Amino acid sequence: MLRLECAIQTYDWGKPGLESAVAQLKQEGDDHFEAQQDTRYAELWMGTHPSGPSTVIVPAGPKKILLKDYLDAHPEATGSASVAGGDLPFMFKVLSIAKALSIQAHPDKRRAEELHATRPQVYKDANHKPEMAISLTPFEALCGFRPLAELLSHFSSFPEFKALVDSDLVNALAMVAEGSGKEVEAKEALRKVFSSYMEAPEERAMAELSALVARLERKQEIERDAGEAHDPLESLILRLKAHYPGDRGVLCPLFLNYVRLGPGKAFVMEANEPHAYLSGDILECMACSDNVVRVGLTPKYRDVPTLLEMLTCASGAMAVTEGEVLAKQEGQEHRLFSPGASIPEFEVETIKLEKTTGGCSAPFAWKGVDGPSLLVVLEGAGEAEEVRGSTARLSARRKTELSERALSLHKGQVFLVPANTGLAMTSSRTSQRLYVALAHANFHGCPAV
């Protein structure tokens, strides 16, 4: 295992100072970093992407070297994984979200190559970017188009919203939703409805948005006076309006699934699917790309024509998973979060070790995989000893205590685990829990969630 130093990104939507899980991890794991309360820390990047590359801290070495260069020079660390030129096939991140990210989608491989070839200044690489989000704290997101029946009900409940879409297109969508059309026809009808909304004249869009917001504000004032609860979707629209005034993305929750997840829940966003993360702290793993096509809730460049063309326009409730339990016994829990066999670039494992009455957790054996892994310590402290071989097991002696070669682990540290290197891990006597996450190429090929 080799310690890594990882980049952080500060964006307007990030959480300030040590309210951010990103800042907490960076400060705990890097003696040279001190979080500033007036800085918004949004993302911790782990991997080889040139926009935020990790470096290897070489023991007793003269200097740090890029992780990419280390892997290129040490093929034994990459095993059978495809690591061209030292580049990992995935990126691993922690995100801390105080307000909504943009309404966006990521291109598939073919379109990413086209966009990079024609507009490299905007789309800076030629790779696709399917991704998976795993919640660390309560997490809100918009992801994928709602079931058509829900969307159609919103045209009835929000007349200002309906006024921004061609009525003939709404009627056509209603017909296919009732079962008179095939799936391909339903997708095309939805594309036309969403396009009609996104392309509505700006002046009319802002007038209807203002009228809807004013109506919801009056409604919520009456509800407050009566001691009644607010509708969560309506509250979200008002919150987005406060953060992004004059942005038609404020009404995109009427199109997209609004999901609220507790810690440990996850979902996969395939290429060409619309989404926006709204609040919370998450782990995120994705193919190694930074391509984003945006259409709303952002001051950045919006590429509406490209997004409208690339969306699959699939609709339905979002699939949420808690991962596959690989091992669970007293004080130990090991889960696998896989995006499915169609996405070979990544998967994530989480390991939680709880202190027992003996003072520390029972040793846990992680077998390792035939490719490089990135490990981040999310909580607590402990120890890990390398065990060579992809089918590593703890010896009888290791089941009672770790050797003097064990490496100390504590919150915020990030490590490269070379291919075919297992780990014998335990929490420390001073910590209630050791919680780590490992990202690597998809070696399990589990069914899609």
UniProtKB/TrEMBL annotation:
CDD domains to which the protein is assigned, alphabetical: cupin_PMI_type_I_N
Gene Ontology CC terms: cytosol
Residues covered by the Phosphomannose isomerase type I helical insertion domain: 182-256
Biological or metabolic pathway of the protein: Nucleotide-sugar biosynthesis; GDP-alpha-D-mannose biosynthesis; alpha-D-mannose 1-phosphate from D-fructose 6-phosphate: step 1/2
Coiled-coil stretches noted in the UniProt entry, renumbered to this chain: none
Record: active site: 294
Residues that bind Zn(2+): 104, 106, 131, 275
Lineage top rank: taxon: Eukaryota
Catalytic activity: D-mannose 6-phosphate = D-fructose 6-phosphate
InterPro entries in UniProt: Man6P_Isoase-1, Mannose-6-P_Isomerase, Pmannose_isomerase-type1_CS, PMI_typeI_cat, PMI_typeI_hel, RmlC-like_jellyroll, RmlC_Cupin_sf
Phosphomannose isomerase type I catalytic domain segment(s): 1-148
Cofactor(s) of this protein: Zn(2+)
UniProt cross-references to Pfam families, sorted A to Z: PMI_typeI_cat, PMI_typeI_hel
EC number: 5.3.1.8
Gene Ontology molecular function: any one: zinc ion binding
GO biological process terms, semicolon-separated: carbohydrate metabolic process; GDP-mannose biosynthetic process
Note on cofactor: Binds 1 zinc ion per subunit.
Family affiliation: Belongs to the mannose-6-phosphate isomerase type 1 family.
Family annotation (NCBIfam families): manA
UniProt name for this protein: mannose-6-phosphate isomerase
Organism: Nannochloropsis gaditana
Highest classification ranks of the organism: Eukaryota, Sar, Stramenopiles, Ochrophyta, Eustigmatophyceae
